[in-house]
Amino acid sequence: MKIIMLGAPGAGKGTQAKQIADKYSIPHISTGDIFRANIKNGTELGKKAKQFMDQGLLVPDELTCDLVMDRIQQDDCVNGFVLDGFPRTIPQAEALTAALDNINQKMDFAVDVDVPDENIVNRMGGRRACLSCGATYHIVSIPTKVEGICDRCGSEVVLREDDKPETVQKRLSVYHEQTQPLIDYYNNQGILKSVDGTQAMDKVFADIIAILEK
Ligand code: ADP
Ligand code: AMP
């Protein structure tokens, strides 16, 4: 099963993608996580990506597309994958369609996790991320068991640099301008499904599973 998670930054794509990946034993591929790992490890890609990410801008397509095309051709992707945070532009979506066409494949579902902007600001302000293992929490709705400490790996959880209020507005306007058009793109491909992302995490997940297993 090959799934794309669509939705605004902070809509809950990563939260849902992790659960989908666990349920179907397929890899969760988050371009944001890949960039953050590169930043942490001080790679050239990380240095380049950070300049854009810290400003709430998208990393250029030429730094993003090849990375994903390589990743989805690895052995662990034979039974499918969940893409989280990719594609984010029409050229990225076209590159993905073309790469899959070449191997006679196509995406099965593009799931739009729909959350209005007013909820997003709260979601991102309250998000706490573990930069070691990638787990994500929310200080009110999905808190860690011990304040400030990742349940999964025991590292510190932090407010991401790009979740600071001044960057959140920028990321939302970038989303509306560059990423939202993908909803029409995948609707035209006949694979768009939408879920109400304002519901509790478990209800959103149940709605997604109902779509995938229909
Ligand atoms: P995205 O990957 O779309 O940027 P995340 O999955 O990181 O979003 O979720 C953003 C924030 O909202 C996180 O703090 C997460 O814990 C929280 N969150 C995710 N889903 C829900 C939900 N259904 N209800 C309340 N909070 C949620
Ligand atoms: P995320 O973890 O998905 O919220 O992504 C964090 C940041 O990484 C984004 O705000 C972008 O700067 C960058 N990024 C992640 N995925 C992409 C992508 N597909 N295209 C461009 N930039 C991306």
Question: How would you concisely characterize the structure shown here?
Answer:
With 214 residues, the chain is α/β, with parallel strands linked by helices. It contains nine helices and eight strands. The two termini are 13 Å apart.
Shape: globular
Average pLDDT metric = 96
Proportion of residues in extended strands: 5-15%
The neighbouring-strand order within the major sheet is 2-3-1-4-8
Total of helices:
9
How far apart the termini lie comes to: 13 Å
Radius of gyration: 16 Å
Q: Tell me the series of helices and strands, N- to C-terminal.
A: EHEHHHEHEHEEEHHEH
Q: Based on helices, strands and strand pairing, what is the structural class? A: alpha/beta
Q: Report the strand count.
A: 8
Low-confidence segments, given as residue ranges, are none
Please describe the biggest sheet, giving its number of strands, its sense, and whether it closes into a barrel. Answer: 5 strands, parallel
Which ligands are bound? adenosine-5'-diphosphate, adenosine monophosphate
Helix content range of the residues, please? 40-55%
